[in-house]
Structure formats: C-alpha cells, structure tokens
C-alpha cells in the first residue's frame, strides 16, 4: 500500500466509500493469521531496550498517530447471565487490524486501541482483544500499535489509559482495569465511582515500574455552557495532575467524532455546548482552562484523535484514524520514545492535513527550547526572547481531495504565576494573542515557511504557544453544520520561558 502522501494518481481518485470497502479486508487478514498468542520475540521488550534513552534525540521526527480508536471489542454485555456475556460489535464495528490498515493508509506511524469497558471487561480485553492486537502487530508491522483502553475513569468521563509496550503489557492493563475501572465490577460497585478512587488509581499507576499515560477524552462533551462544566472539572484535573504529574498529562484538545455534521450531527458529539473550530472549549478559548493550567506551570498537553467507531459513510460520525485528525509526536519510531514524547509535550495537533510539520522554538543568547521544553534566561533590565515558528504546508491533496492553505498563524503568550488560589479557576487573564501573521509575514525556507517574532523585555516566567487556521476567523467560532473540511486548525503545545 502506498503512503498517504503518494503522488500516485490512483490515490487521489480513491473515494471514501471505496476505502470503507477496502477496510473490510482487515477481518479476513485477522482470521488468516496463524499467531494465536504471544507477540514476536524481537518486539516483546522494546520498552525495556529503550529505557534510559529519553534524552537521545537522534532520529526523532514528527510522527503522526491517534491514541483513541475503537474496535469491535467496544461491544455490549448481557448482564442477565453471571458472569455477563459479551457481544462484539455493538458500539464500534471494525476489527483491530482494519483500524491499523486504515491508520497506515492515512499516514499514521502509531495508533492505539481504546475500547470501552463494562462489567468484567478486563477479562474480555485479556482473553479476546489482546490476542487480536498481537495478530494485528504482525500483519501491519509498519504501524506501532499500543495496548490500552478507553478507561472508565472514576467520577469522570472516559480517558485514554496507554500501557507501555512490554512482555507483560496485557497483565498490566488487566490489573488496572479490574481494580479501578468504575464499571468493571459485577455487580456494580458504587464505591468505584468517586474522585478518591480516581486518585487511588493514579497513585497506583505512578508506582508502577513501567508507567502508563492517562489523557482525558472529550472533556467538555457534557458541559452545558461556556465555562460551565459537566463530568470533567478544573478541580479534578488539578487534583489528578497533582497526584501523578508524570501519568495524568493532558486532555484531547480536539475530540473525535469530527464527521458528525456530514450526517447532520454535532462535531465531537458535543450536543450541549459546541466545539469551536473542532476544538474543545477548554482549549479553544484563549485565556481559558488550558491557559489557566499552563499559567500554573503545569505540563499539561493537548492531543487530537478520531474516536473512530463507525465511519460516516456507514451512518456514523467518524473519520478513520488519521483521515482528519492527527497527533504529531517528535520521536523515534519505537514505542518508548512515542510515549516519552506524549509524556513530555513534544506534540502538535492538526486537522485536515492543513500542515504536515510544525516547530516552535524560543531562544536567547545561544540557548533554545522547543515544545514541551523550558528556556532559562537571565534576569536583566532588558531580556529579549526570539520566537521562531516553522511549518510545512501539505504537498498535494488531503483525504477530502482538497488543497488546504494556511491563512493565518497566531502567537499566544501567557504568564506563569504559580498555583491558583482556587482549584476551580478556569481562566488566565494574562494570556493574549500577541501577534497574528498572514502569508506576507512568513518567508519560504526550502519546503517550510518561517516566522520570527521577538518578545521584548521578558521579566517574568511565561509560556508561548501557536495556532493556525484555514479560515478568516479571528477566534474559532462555535461550530454548527459547516463541513469540518472547511474549518481546519492546528495547535502547538507550549514552550516555557523561565526568568532567573
């Protein structure tokens, strides 16, 4: 199969409906695999082999992926039997290998299976889904396929629970899901659905030798209004991040289900208060909750996912993994370094392949820092910090057959003032768009465009982040029934500047 950026005209002519047919081959391949249990020996302990190399930046490039993808193991349970009887395909319909094939087709280097839980689902994951993941890894070796789930987080909405790649990864997930997922117990245990249980889970994860990652899904999906939150609240994010800052590291800036409007639904499935430009209000609002968390100095990152269940051409609200949304991680092509990038904020996100690479650098007197990193500058009467933004536009057409163009790039800066007086704070009034750039403001350098800006007289700790768009909206507007392909955005994670 050709890569997504292939110049082959057959790729450009391939319709989305043909892709749906093509994906059906995954079920046949999975059934034909002779591998019943156990992954290949050479892959079993890749995480161990890479342990201790997190500071090695060699061979790191931007690698696109998706950590929120559902398979046919997002099913249903008949609780009239004891134990409950599991039925595949009730909620999501595609085999694990089909998702991997489509992820590869749309240019992803890594992907993660995140199926829903339920009563005794930990055993379904261990005994049924995991063997299929092992088969898929053999059949689609070009895509790193993480093991984990869409965790039924106590007192919260769903979260990614990403397990490091190692020989006992299935047992590690089983331990965490069976002990802490709020719906895994049968009969239901109401004591699992409390914030204290969530903190207990995060502390248990933090104490593990191989540390998982936890990222909140569709955080404002249940929010009834702007700044009025539902299941997920600022207080819970802070408490969780305080308990396990290397485990609980962020939320989806752009949720999945972005194809909703193509079937008269809402982007993201946000039926109460909408997304803005496809992004959750917690991210899209300048000076909002994300900026409030960054303004405390928290290393709290955003991602973008498909939340793929059923493709929109089959009546669903979803794109394939990588077809529309991508999370780009600066990493080597190995499991440990992908997780290291996610853990440490070497991430930018985008929709519709508006751009294919993004770099944000802050520099001062020969020192520099990139996304997720900290630049330390001396306290002087006059300290200037140089900001450089590089992005590469898409060459060719995206999955919709369009040639999107960047119309504007914004540089956003906020001060870091320390912990908020209230755990419920959801604003950072210091955060501003300090500069807006159009095509006349950037210059071409090879295949990239470069923007430079100077932050003058930096006297206090701050962070800088970048966003860009194909639209002419000064701020991303609340989403309606516009096509998601006509409303494309990208966001960087921040670079931090520390004054000492």
Describe this structure in words.
By secondary structure, the protein is an alpha+beta fold. It has one domain: TIM Barrel (Alpha-Beta Barrel), CATH 3.20.20.140. The protein is built from twelve helices and 22 strands. Helix 6 runs antiparallel to helix 7 and helix 8 runs parallel beside helix 9.
Q: Might you state the CATH topology name?
A: TIM Barrel
* Count of spatially separate domains: 1
- Give a quick account of the main beta sheet: strands, pairing sense, barrel closure: 15 strands, mixed
Structural class by SSE content:
alpha+beta
Q: Going by CATH, what is the homologous superfamily?
A: Metal-dependent hydrolases
Q: State the assembly state of the protein chains.
A: single chain
CATH architecture: Alpha-Beta Barrel
**How large is the radius of gyration?**
22 Å
Number of helices: 12
Average pLDDT taken over every residue: 91
> Helix amount, in percent?
10-25%
The number of strands is 22
Percent range for β-strand residues: 25-35%
Gross morphology is globular
The CATH class name reads: Alpha Beta
For the termini, the CA-CA separation is: 52 Å
Low-confidence runs: 1-52
Task: Describe the secondary-structure layout.
Elements: H1 9-13, H2 16-23, H3 25-32, H4 46-50, E1 61-69, E2 76-78, E3 85-87, H5 96-105, E4 110-113, H6 121-139, E5 144-151, E6 159-163, H7 169-180, H8 195-206, E7 213-216, H9 234-243, E8 248-254, H10 281-284, H11 289-294, E9 301-304, E10 325-331, H12 335-344, E11 347-351, E12 355-364, E13 367-370, E14 374-377, E15 385-393, E16 408-415, E17 432-437, E18 443-445, E19 448-455, E20 462-469, E21 489-492, E22 495-499
Parallel strand pairs: 1-4, 4-5, 7-8, 8-9, 14-22
Antiparallel strand pairs: 1-10, 2-3, 5-6, 6-7, 10-11, 11-21, 12-13, 12-15, 15-19, 16-17, 16-20, 18-19, 20-21, 20-22
Helix pairs in contact: 3-5, 5-6, 6-7, 8-9
Biased composition (Basic and acidic residues): 46-61
Region (Disordered): 32-61
InterPro entries: Pol/histidinol_Pase-like, TAT_signal
